[in-house]
Design goal:
By secondary structure, the protein is of the alpha/beta class. The protein has a single domain, classed as Glycerol-3-phosphate (1)-acyltransferase (3-Layer(aba) Sandwich). It contains eight helices and eight strands, in the order H-H-E-E-H-E-H-E-H-E-H-E-H-E-H-E. An eight-stranded mixed beta sheet has the order 4-3-5-2-6-7-1-8, with helices on both faces. Helix 2 crosses helix 3. It is globular, with a radius of gyration of 17 Å. The relative contact order is 0.20.
């Protein structure tokens, strides 16, 4: 993990943008492997933009998991930039940081998001605004959805879950809630056995006349539905993160 962070810090400034983005995904998959976390992808992730991914938020590990599933530019609170290792990955992945207590800064980020979508990027947000317990999805803040409305870009709902290996029980190992420390959460993740990160991608949708608040409520309902749906994994989507091909893709064996 440290070597990957060093590569991002030292090599990225001279790398072409497509190569940097590919490297972020490879590094994320390698990090999951070292943490002992299996990646299970359901549905079809966005490969090209414009697209805004909207996901529920459980843990610091969500950023790594989504980067491993598909490259995307996150919109995250400014604190993430200072997190060890995760902050390096987030910055290497061209994250847009926002000071959430500043309305002015939020407006600035919405404008930058809209421009990034118009430029064809895949962005990702956690509209709960904080981490939840994984058993339910908190109400969504709608402000950042204005970027997709302004850019007339589609939004793809994404459901994140962490489950115990060999069962469908939700795992608390990766929890980063309330007064829990980042170090403690990382330690529990390292000690967990057969941990699986399950990422379910829903069908992209457009606003179709909805304002951002109505759209946020509908997306929350959709993510709740994805969390409970028994969707079978697609052929190339069950990925022990041991796959290290340069394209960052995983293949099923027949």
């Amino acid at each position: 993990m440290l070597s990957g962070a060093a590569q991002i810090s030292l090599q990225f400034p001279g790398m072409p943008r497509p190569q940097r983005r590919e490297r972020v995904q490879v590094w994320a998959r390698e990090m999951l492997e070292r943490l002992g976390v299996a990646l299970v992808i359901r549905g079809v992730p966005a490969r090209t933009g414009p697209m805004l991914l909207v996901a529920n938020h459980i843990s610091w590990l969500d950023i790594v998991v989504l980067h491993a599933a598909c490259f995307c530019r996150f919109v995250s609170k400014a604190d993430v930039e200072r997190w060890p290792l995760i902050g390096t990955l987030a910055s290497g992945g061209e994250t847009l940081y926002v000071e959430r207590r500043s309305r002015r800064d939020a407006l600035r980020v919405v404008h930058r998001m809209a421009q990034a979508l118009l430029d064809g990027d895949v962005l990702a947000v956690f509209p709960e605004g904080t981490t939840g317990d994984g058993a339910s999805v908190l109400p969504f803040h709608a402000n950042l959805l204005q970027a997709a409305i302004s850019a007339d870009a589609p939004v793809q709902p994404v459901a994140l879950q962490f489950v115990e290996g060999g069962s469908e029980e939700l795992s608390r190992a990766v929890s980063y809630l309330g007064d829990e420390s980042l170090v403690g959460s990382i330690w529990r993740t390292l000690c967990a056995r057969q941990l699986r990160a399950r990422v379910t991608f829903g069908t992209p949708q457009r606003a179709d006349g909805r304002d951002r608040r109505a759209w946020a409520a509908d997306l929350r309902d959709e993510i709740n539905a994805l969390r409970t749906a028994g969707v079978a994994p697609s052929c190339d989507a069950v990925a022990r993160t041991r796959s290290r091909d340069s394209a960052g893709s995983s293949r099923c064996r027949s």
